[in-house]
């Protein structure tokens, strides 16, 4: 005779929640794609390579992403969004703006070292001729870079009002600083294994000397 069930209970066996596992699998695909895009570039990376590195079938990757372009866009969106948040939080810090500007440089360098695949990918995208390697329709991400840097533009403007940051168009100064940080990535052995290395303290001093208001 069947054992009676407690009041309010059903005979169905509870099914485990698969969402954490699905989300973990999606993150694994993103992490792997980020690493491969950074090391091999967009054209040199295929969905099959990503799937094989994860131990998945290509069909499993298509459960999460429509195609390689969609996967690439999400790699950029995930890290780019987080870096934008860190940039905004840093730019709002109190104190002399030139000090905060140097702090922001540390934030960007640290973030790319924490996520070296993304750091390598970023360096590829802004390298001479690099834009030709990536899908043209993803050029919107380059446009969003100015949007993400808007807090730093305001930081520089604040510093100019304080008298701690040199005169000049704040947007132009931010673009110049961003280019300097990108050049630093290219000489960072953590990212590219280059034999030409710039000491972090020397780079911070260079940024400060270049962007501080003349005394």
Key phrases:
single chain, 215 residues, mainly alpha, 11 helices, 67% helix, 0% strand, elongated, disordered N terminus
Major beta sheet summary: none
Number of strands: 0
From the N-terminal CA to the C-terminal CA, the straight-line distance is: 93 Å
CATH class of one domain, anyone? Mainly Alpha
CATH topology of one domain: Tetracycline Repressor, domain 2
Structural class based on helices, strands and sheet pairing: mainly alpha
Work out the helicity level: 55-70%
Rg to the nearest angstrom?
23 Å
Overall pLDDT score? 84
SSE string, helices as H and strands as E? HHHHHHHHHHH
Strand residues, percent: under 5%
Explain the overall architecture:
- The chain is mainly α.
- It has a domain at 76-211: Tetracycline Repressor, domain 2, CATH 1.10.357.
- Helix content is 67%, strand content 0%.
- It has helices at 19-40, 47-54, 58-62, 68-91, 97-114, 116-126, 140-148, 150-162, 170-186, 189-192, 200-211.
- Helix 5 (97-114) packs antiparallel against helix 8 (150-162).
- Residues 1-11 have low confidence and may be disordered.
Summarize the helices and strands and which ones pair or pack.
Blueprint: H1 19-40, H2 47-54, H3 58-62, H4 68-91, H5 97-114, H6 116-126, H7 140-148, H8 150-162, H9 170-186, H10 189-192, H11 200-211
What is the gist of this entry?
This protein is mostly helical and 215 residues long. It contains 11 helices and no strands.
């Amino acid at each position: 005779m069947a054992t009676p069930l407690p009041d309010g209970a059903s005979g169905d066996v509870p099914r485990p929640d698969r969402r954490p596992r699905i989300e973990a699998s999606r993150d694994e695909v993103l992490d792997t794609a980020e690493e491969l895009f950074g090391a091999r570039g967009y054209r040199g990376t295929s969905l099959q390579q990503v799937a094989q590195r994860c131990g998945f079938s290509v069909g499993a990757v298509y459960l999460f992403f429509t195609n390689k372009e969609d996967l690439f866009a999400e790699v950029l969106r995930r890290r780019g969004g987080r870096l934008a948040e860190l940039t905004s939080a840093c730019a709002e810090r109190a104190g002399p703006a030139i000090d905060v500007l140097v702090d922001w440089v540390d934030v960007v360098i640290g973030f790319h070292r924490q996520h070296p695949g993304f750091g390598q990918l970023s360096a590829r995208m802004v390298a001479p001729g690099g834009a030709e390697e990536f899908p043209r329709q993803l050029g919107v991400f380059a446009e969003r870079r100015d949007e993400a840097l808007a807090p730093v533009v305001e930081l520089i403007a604040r510093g100019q009002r304080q008298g701690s940051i040199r005169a000049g168009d704040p947007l132009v100064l931010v673009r110049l600083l961003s280019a300097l940080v990108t050049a630093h990535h290219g000489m960072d052995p953590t990212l590219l294994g280059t034999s030409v290395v710039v000491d972090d303290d020397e780079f911070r001093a260079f940024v400060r000397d270049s962007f501080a208001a003349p005394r």
